[in-house]
Design goal:
Blueprint: E1 35-41, E2 53-66, E3 77-80, H1 89-92, E4 93-97, E5 105-107, E6 122-134, E7 142-143, E8 148-151, E9 159-161, H2 168-176, E10 180-182, E11 186-187, E12 192-197
Parallel strand pairs: 2-4
Antiparallel strand pairs: 1-2, 2-6, 3-4, 3-5, 6-12, 7-11, 8-9, 8-10, 10-12
Length: 202
């Protein structure tokens, strides 16, 4: 967990507030990879003091810097920078969006505004607990409660149902890079629903 448990910026916002004049890739590097345990509040209503708990569980979020070429949007699955030159890059930086089951990723803060997390800004990803994600524009996008979601391969940053009929390395990827277990059902392409991130590893 983070050293003092105080989040340096609120959920639903980014470190630099999306200000392109303030964003500095060399600022705040000590925050990359920091993790925080927070309540599972529903911030979508935007009413101060009236944020209902979505569940009784806590969520664990991690600060990541967006070092890709495009903004990360709310609910997309950010791809972790496993090829980074520094050890901290693998846990504290993203390299775009997942585009296949071979990619390791986590859901971007679902409460971000429409501009998302701009290039070199920092935001939260959910590494454990409930998070809203979106189904792919193609593939197996009907998932029931309890089914496992994995990165999709048509529209980057989305998910499809886990396919355990594959073999070898493909099956390994389906298991190791699972995003989470569905807690709400979905039966359509490009549709938002909720998963329990990390449930497959508990």
């Amino acid at each position: 967990m983070a050293r003092d448990e105080n989040m340096p910026f609120p959920l639903g916002q980014t470190y630099f507030g999306g200000d392109t004049y303030e964003i500095d890739v060399n600022a705040g590097t000590n925050l990359e990879g920091q993790e925080y345990s927070i309540e599972d509040d529903n911030l979508s209503n935007g009413t101060i003091g009236a944020n209902a708990n979505r569940s009784g569980r806590r969520r664990k979020v991690r600060i990541v810097r967006n070092v890709s070429a495009v903004a990360l949007l709310a609910g997309q699955i950010a791809k972790m920078d496993l090829g980074g030159a520094l050890q901290g890059n693998t846990v504290g930086q993203t390299a775009g969006l997942v585009a296949s089951a071979a990619d390791k990723g986590f859901p971007v803060d679902e409460f971000l505004g429409p501009n998302g997390c701009l290039v070199n800004d920092m935001c939260y990803v959910v590494i454990d607990g409930l998070a809203t994600v979106k189904t792919d524009s193609a593939g197996t996008t009907t998932l029931i409660v309890g089914q496992i979601a994995v990165p999709g391969a048509t529209t980057a940053g989305t998910v499809v149902a886990q396919d355990t009929t594959t073999t070898g390395a493909a099956l390994f990827n389906q298991i190791q890079n699972a995003i989470g277990r569905c807690v709400t059902a979905v039966a359509a392409n490009s549709t938002s629903f909720v998963v329990d991130v990390g449930a497959t590893h508990r």
